[in-house]
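Researcher: Before we compare anything, I want clean individual predictions. No alignment, no superposition, just each chain on its own. First chain goes here; please echo the sequence and then give the structure tokens.
Model: Echoing the first chain and its structure:
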Amino acid sequence: MNLKKNEAEETTNRRFRLHEILIALINQQKDLELMEDGVQILNNPINHSEKYDSSKIIERNQRIIKKYQSLVRSAIALDALLESEQYDIS
């Protein structure tokens, strides 16, 4: 029973560390973009024909997702390095 509790605590601690590292990485980004769904553009019919291009929105969103995935992978790698250093010291 204690083993399961310890594993649950370790998982919770690791998730918290990953979250903190990810937030720190996001805070370092100067031009981090948010994804668009195109709805705001469609709600403005005056500029609809000028601005709405679904392929550009999809490409932009894919680029943004890749950036976030890169940040998550970096956070995981940093957490693993921190954890390995902790085991080396012990």
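Researcher: Okay. Second chain, same rules.
Model: Second chain and its structure:
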Amino acid sequence: MTPEEPAALLRGLQAGVRVVVRYRIDGGFTDALGTLSDVGADGCTVATRRGDVVIPYPLVTAAKTVPPAPPRRPARTRQL
């Protein structure tokens, strides 16, 4: 896979799709898992649980769509 392919995949997606994106950071790599909220000319934005992550395309090393998150389980009730 060439470095352009993951970025090309992201450019071809519409906002609202759930994705995981691996990208370079100082000292290594990290992943962003969430909903693709913006697809721009120079990068994309992924809405994660911790907030929006803006990722420039040249830093992307891998990307793919993923299925929707499973529903959250209800809170446990304490039994005495």
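Researcher: What stands out in the second chain?
Model: The helical segments are 4-11. Additionally, The CA atoms of residues 45 and 54 lie 4 Å apart.
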